[in-house]
């Protein structure tokens, strides 16, 4: 089998969930299918991230001169894939157009880009550049999804939500769970942990949360805690952007929370490992990778009941409504005052996170490839 994969996320110096997906999945695929030929299509915007590709992989670098090159390459890529005579064309970042004669698979991480355009634009800042980009991504994603032979997604919840939009029938959608990035594990080195504590000025107990994931409910819940408990534990937010939600900015001004902007991967793993709990009351998640990262590092997890989170958390974390600050306060009190409960959640989380591996994800994706490339293809069991 000859497989072409759009890996431009690995030559754009990007961060975020889709980047993690591509950077983790591609090496796992190359390991899992040594007898298949893989053609990886990046561009020249930034150095390609993967080093020492195995013999079953060849890298193709598309030209890049300006942001408009990405638009040109969106359309040019199928011609490059056609020259390599790929049997399967995989676009792991929400959209793409494969060549004639190849089966096209797209990983759509959630339903957002195929929602009606007004619904998409309501969720973004009304800046001209953002509006143009969202309109472009909506148009290409919708067109590409309609033409795709198979849609991969990262959870059963995402599969249901994508099918409900009605752009592609449910029988053409396959859910294959993602996994924590390689190297995600608890940091036990006391010197490393102490170094991170000193670096961030952390002297005692803290809970950890993402500043962009519904921080207001956590701040309301925190205000409900007994004063002695609030005084003995602090709230630490991390954020991938300095543009903080207003609730977090106000809490920082009151000196009631700490915020760390763009911690490194190593720093984040240390923070997970030292935290008394990781709180993730997100409104919407296609998968919810941070909860598995926290579990793998030994942090008890409290998550919302929205999106895919109940599916991904399973019985290994505590769940409450995304807007119920009273329920969240009760769960925080339980974790922070009952060491036996916290220890049990850590054990459950370790075991649960270990079930999610990129080798397992790669096997699921390869099964979808093979089903599509078979003469009379049928979707893998995960789609039915």
Describe this structure as you would to a colleague:
The chain has 384 residues and is α/β, with parallel strands linked by helices. It folds into two domains: 2-179 and 358-383, Rossmann fold; 190-353, Glycogen Phosphorylase B (Rossmann fold, 3-Layer(aba) Sandwich). 45% of the residues lie in helices and 16% in strands. It contains 15 helices and 13 strands. The strands form two sheets. The chain has a seven-stranded parallel β-sheet with strand order 3-2-1-4-5-6-7, sandwiched between helices. The two termini are 24 Å apart.
CATH architecture of the largest domain: 3-Layer(aba) Sandwich
| Percentage of residues in DSSP E strands | 15-25%
Q: What topology, given as strand order, has the largest sheet?
A: 3-2-1-4-5-6-7
Q: Could you state the oligomeric state of the chains shown?
A: single chain
> How big is the Rg?
22 Å
Helix coverage percent of residues?
40-55%
CATH class of the largest domain: Alpha Beta
> How many domains in all?
2
Number of helices: 15
Query: What's the mean pLDDT score?
Result: 93
Q: Name the overall outline.
A: globular
Termini Cα gap: 24 Å
Major beta sheet, specifics?
7 strands, parallel
Low-confidence stretches: none
CATH topology of the largest domain: Rossmann fold
Write the layout of secondary structure elements.
Blueprint: E1 2-6, H1 17-32, E2 37-43, E3 57-62, H2 67-83, E4 88-91, E5 103-107, H3 117-122, H4 128-147, E6 150-153, H5 156-165, E7 173-175, H6 190-200, E8 205-210, H7 215-224, H8 227-232, E9 233-239, H9 246-253, E10 257-261, H10 265-274, E11 277-280, H11 289-296, E12 301-304, H12 309-313, E13 318-320, H13 325-337, H14 339-353, H15 358-373
Parallel strand pairs: 1-2, 1-4, 2-3, 4-5, 5-6, 6-7, 8-9, 8-11, 9-10, 11-12, 12-13
């Amino acid at each position: 089998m000859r497989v072409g994969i759009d890996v431009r996320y690995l030559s754009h110096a990007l961060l975020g969930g889709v980047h993690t997906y591509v950077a983790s999945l591609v090496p796992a695929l190359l390991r899992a299918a040594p007898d298949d030929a893989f053609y990886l299509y990046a561009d020249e915007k930034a150095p390609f991230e993967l080093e020492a590709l195995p013999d079953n992989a060849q890298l193709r670098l598309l030209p890049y001169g300006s942001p408009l090159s990405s638009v040109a390459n969106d359309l040019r890529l199928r011609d490059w894939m056609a020259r390599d005579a790929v049997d399967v064309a995989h676009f792991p970042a929400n959209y793409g157009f494969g060549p004639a004669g190849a089966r096209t698979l797209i990983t759509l991480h959630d339903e957002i880009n195929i929602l009606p355009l007004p619904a998409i634009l309501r969720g973004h800042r009304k800046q001209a550049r953002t509006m143009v980009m969202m309109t472009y991504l909506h148009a290409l994603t919708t067109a590409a999804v309609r033409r795709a032979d198979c849609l991969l997604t990262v959870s059963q919840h995402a599969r249901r939500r994508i099918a409900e939009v009605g752009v592609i029938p449910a029988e053409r959608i396959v859910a294959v769970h993602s996994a924590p990035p390689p190297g995600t594990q608890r940091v036990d080195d006391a010197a490393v942990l102490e170094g991170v504590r000193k670096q961030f000025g952390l002297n005692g107990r803290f809970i950890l949360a993402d500043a962009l994931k519904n921080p207001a409910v956590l701040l309301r819940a925190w205000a409900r805690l007994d004063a002695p408990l609030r005084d003995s534990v602090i709230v630490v937010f991390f954020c991938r952007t300095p543009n903080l939600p207003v609730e977090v900015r106000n809490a920082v001004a009151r000196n009631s929370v700490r915020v760390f902007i763009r911690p490194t991967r190593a720093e984040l793993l240390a923070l997970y490992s030292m935290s008394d709990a990781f709180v993730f009351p997100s409104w919407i998640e296609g998968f919810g990778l941070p909860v598995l990262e926290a579990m793998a590092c030994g942090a008890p997890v409290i998550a919302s009941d929205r999106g895919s989170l109940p599916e991904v958390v399973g019985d290994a974390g505590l769940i409450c409504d995304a807007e119920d600050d009273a329920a969240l306060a009760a769960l925080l009190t339980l974790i922070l005052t009952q060491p036996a409960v916290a220890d049990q959640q850590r054990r459950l989380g370790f075991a649960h996170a270990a079930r999610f591996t990129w080798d397992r994800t790669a096997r699921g994706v390869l099964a979808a490839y093979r089903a599509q490339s078979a003469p009379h293809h049928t979707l893998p069991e995960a789609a039915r």
